[in-house]
Amino acid sequence: MLKGISPNVSAELLSTLAQMGHGDELLICDRNYPAISKSNRVINYPSSQVSEVLEIVLALLPIDNFVDEPLIRMEIVEEPERVTEGQKEVHQLAIKIEGRPFAMGSLSRYAFYERAKSAFATIVTSDNRPYQCFIVVKGVI
Q: Could you give the residue numbers annotated as active site?
């Protein structure tokens, strides 16, 4: 146990976040995302929602302020403009934690998969809500 760090932060997550550099990307996704086949480094956070994991991550990791869209969501197939309540919740939570407004980008399902392949790590949650998949771009401290 470390002082000042939530007991919800696993050693694996702490090590991964510490290794990330400016501009590296982190994928936080729901249980339906094909993480094992699409990712190099997978961290499992069972019994958790995407928003819970995002809150843990953003307590330790700054979001990039040099890019227009440092948070990117997976678009809904055949409804790319529609933003789910879960996606809105994640965006608002990230803005609240970061303390500044920023845009949330979006990518089609397959474009998201392609970009996510180069993510530094993927965190898989137990979130059942569809389209709860996000890429977060790390900033500087």
A: 22
In this prediction, residue 122 carries a pLDDT of 98
Do residues 116 and 6 touch, judged by C-beta distance below 8 A? no
Reported as a pLDDT band with limits 50, 70 and 90, residue 141 is confident
Q: Give burial (CB, 10 Å; 0-12/13-18/19+) of 138.
A: buried
* 3 lies in some domain: no
Label residue 100 by pLDDT band (50, 70, 90): very high
| 1 belongs to a structural domain | no
- The radius of gyration of the chain from alpha carbons, rounded to an integer in Å, stands at 14
Answer whether 0.90 is exceeded by the pTM: yes
36 part of a folded domain? yes
Per the structure, the count of domains in the chain is 1
Confidence of residue 82 (pLDDT cuts 50, 70, 90): very high
Domain span including residue 24: 11-137
Distance CA 103, CA 33 (A): 23
- CA 110/CA 103 separation, integer angstroms: 21
Does 15 reside within a domain? yes
